[in-house]
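Quarterly update from the structural biology core.
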Amino acid sequence: MVISFEEVSYRYRDRGMSPILGLDGLHLELEEGRMIAVLGAPGSGKSTLLQHMNGLIQADEGLIRILDFRLESGDRKKVPAGLRQRVGLVFQYP
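Predicted structure, tokenized:
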């Protein structure tokens, strides 16, 4: 697998409110050479999923593998060197 999410969960913490669930136990495997569309209703976790792919946000639980990089929950060190040179994001409203 080129990209895999293994039991990934993420909660938003904002302005002292209760955490808001962004991803819950996500398991996803994306193969090389495939074109994938991410669709869903507003607030369903599309942007949250994509932000994990280049380390903009880090999972609270689980493991993310992207190419030869590993992003483990609870590992609050810097994003692995070279990840953002190989994985880019283009936002709808930059």
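The radius of gyration is 13 Å.
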